[in-house]
Amino acid sequence: MSDLRDLYQEVILDHGRNPRNYGKLENANRLAKGYNPLCGDRFTIYLFVEEGIVRDIRFEGSGCAIALASASMMTEDLKGRSEEDAEKRFEQFHTLLTGDPSTREGAGDPSLGKLAVFSGVREFPVRVKCATLPWHAFEAALKEEGETATTE
Question: What burial letters (b/e) apply to 37-69, b meaning 16+ CB within 10 Å?
Answer without folding.
Answer: eebebbbbbbbbbeeeebebbbbbbebbbbbbb
